[in-house]
Amino acid sequence: MPLALASLGLCLAFAPVSHVAQDPAPAEPREIRVLPLGHVDATELEGLLAGLVSAMPLRFVADVRSNALVMQGEPELLARWSALIGRLDRAPRAAAEAPRVVPSKELFPPVVMDFEIGGATSVDQRPTLLALLEAYAARSGQELVMEEPTRSRAASVRVGGTEKRVLAAAALQGYVERLLVAHDLALLPLGGAEPHLCAVVSTGNGASRSTRERAVVLAFVDLKILARHPAVIFSAILPLEHADAAQLANGLRATQTDNALQSVVAAGETLLLTGTGAWLQSLVATARLADHRAGERARAAEAHHEVFALRSVRAEELGPILREALAGVSRGRNGAHPAQLSPGAAPSTAIAASIQLDLKRNALLVTCAQRDLASIRALIEALDRE
User: Fold this and answer.
1) Which of 62, 226, 279, 336 could form a disulfide with 46 if both were Cys (CB 3.0 to 4.6 A apart)?
2) Can you give the pTM of this predicted structure?
3) Predicted confidence (pLDDT) at residue 138 exceeds the cutoff of 70
């Protein structure tokens, strides 16, 4: 019996297994690696590299006690960036020639995440119109009171303090838009991701009615719930970075289908858009795309060329490394991005830089926008040392 079992075991051990389903190959694990630093401060190096890897599956954390850099990511990326950091961590030839590691806040300015009112800063990524109006009242001394509708009159807003006025709901929307724009309460984008949607919702008895009989205040996150309701009107304040607001407004007015419920107004470098949620959403996407393309044309017109003569490293070695590093550089900005009625992540735009090698003179020819030149120069100077 034992001999029979042993024979059966040998048969099973050498039996063909081609018909057995193979498990899918596991995903490449994320590895953690600690790089001790001998000459460069870990905190400053973390700041320099933070913006460069924002679009890559790689993370850097500085260990202040041991002056080391903790890296987490895919093994291939870790190997590539370990070699790059090894170049950065070389001892300088002289103290006077030691390159300055530019902090990340200078290379990539932080996105404004709040709005300022009279010197006091209020941080809130989901503001409501009521909060903005209360802040305005605290600043100006004018009290804004929402009165509920009755059978004899519609909802209204009473402005107290030095100026006493009663506004009907039909005039509420335009008044609030002018109020916010005049006092810069709604022009700062939150996180750079979305146009600043005012929480002003006016409802009528139907899409054909221009009279707004009732005004309510909704939280920012609840706006998308009513985005496609035909009788709900939204107001969006969309700052433009590149496009001409007046010219863009004239073009967008051609898309209007119901003049009673839709309006496009240019105020300085800002568009004031009012309409139903679905129409407004498509209009914001069109405006942002036009603004993004205007920015691309402006960047192409201001392209800057500079030659970097290398002292300690060969151009054919540094060129590919620099190209790989800049491929992951990203900058959060208000570029073309599908509009949505809820907060989202800010889009990122990769730095467009052309790097050509001059092997005879051992130099690099860099073509990029003027605003990107400082960050590229800082990286080249940090790599080009003995």
Assistant:
1) 62
2) 0.33
3) no
